Amino acid sequence: MRVGALLRLCARPGPRYLQGQRPGPGTREYFYYVDHHGQLFLDDTKVKNFITCFKDVGFLSFFFKHLERNRSGRYQVEFPFLSRCGRERNFLRCADVPVVFTQILPGSDGNSLLSYCGGGSKLTVPFQPGMLAVFPENGRLYHPAPEKTGGVGLVRSALASEWSSEFQFEEGPEKPPTHFLWEGRRYRLSGKLLEILRAEKSGLEVESVRS
C-alpha cells in the first residue's frame, strides 16, 4: 500500500475552494477537517471546538465508513482523504491521521472495542492491546485502524492518559514501552505500527499491519 507520508500530508492547509462548489453537472464538493480529538468540522470553520464540531452519530458513521484515500485527481495533496455520498465529494484533511480513537466500549463477545471519531458503537475496531505503539518522534499513542484510511489511528490524549500507568518500559524510559497491562494480562508490544509510522514519515511503501 502506498502510504504517501500520511502524517505530513494531513497537516497541510487546504487550497482555495467554496463549500458546496459544483465542479461539474450534478456534483458538489465539501471540505472537512478532523482534529487531534477526533472532532470533525467544516474546514473553513473559524472557531473549532466542541460547540462547532459535528455530533450527529448517523452522519459521522456514514462519513467515516466511506472514508478512503483521495485518488479523485482533485485536492489530493491538500486533502488526502475523501468520503463519497453519491455524486457528492467530501474532502478531508487532518491534524495527524484521519482516525482518532476516543473511547473504549464492551464488545458482544466479551472483548473490548475502540470507538473512533464520535461514532460511538457505530464506528469501532477490535481493541488489540499488543498492537499499541508510542511514536517516539511525537510521544503520541497509536492503534491499528481500518486499512483504507491508512491502517493507523491516533489514540486521543485523554484516553492515552488513562492508560499511561499500564505501560512498562523494560528497555528504559528513553525507549518506547515494551509491555501493556490490560484486564489482568501482560501484552508484549509488537512495535509493528512504529514501522508503518516511520515509513509514512519518509514516504516509503509498506504493507498494512494485521495482527
Summarize the structure.
By secondary structure, this protein is α+β, with helices and mostly antiparallel strands. The chain is 15% helix and 32% strand.
Plain-language structure description:
With 211 residues, the chain is of the alpha+beta class. It is built from four helices and 15 strands. It has helices spanning 6-10, 57-65, 157-163, 192-202; strands at 21-24, 27-34, 40-42, 67-69, 81-85, 88-94, 100-106, 112-116, 124-126, 133-135, 140-144, 152-155, 167-168, 179-182, 185-188. Strands 1, 2, 3, 4, 5 and 6 form a six-stranded mixed beta sheet that branches. It has a six-stranded mixed beta sheet with strand order 9-8-7-12-11-10. Strands 13-14-15 form a three-stranded antiparallel beta sheet, with no helix packed on it. A hairpin with a 5-residue loop joins strand 7 (100-106) and strand 8. It is elongated.
Give me the secondary-structure category.
Answer: alpha+beta
DSSP summary: helix tally: 4
- Strands, total number: 15
Overall shape: it is: elongated
Point out poorly predicted stretches: 1-5, 204-211
Radius of gyration: 17 Å
Helical amount: 10-25%
Strand content: 25-35%
Q: What is the makeup of the main sheet? A: 6 strands, mixed
Mean pLDDT: 88
Terminal CA distance reads 17 Å
User: SSE string, helix = H, strand = E?
Assistant: HEEEHEEEEEEEEEHEEEH
Task: Supply database-style keywords.
alpha+beta, 6-stranded mixed β-sheet, disordered N terminus, disordered C terminus
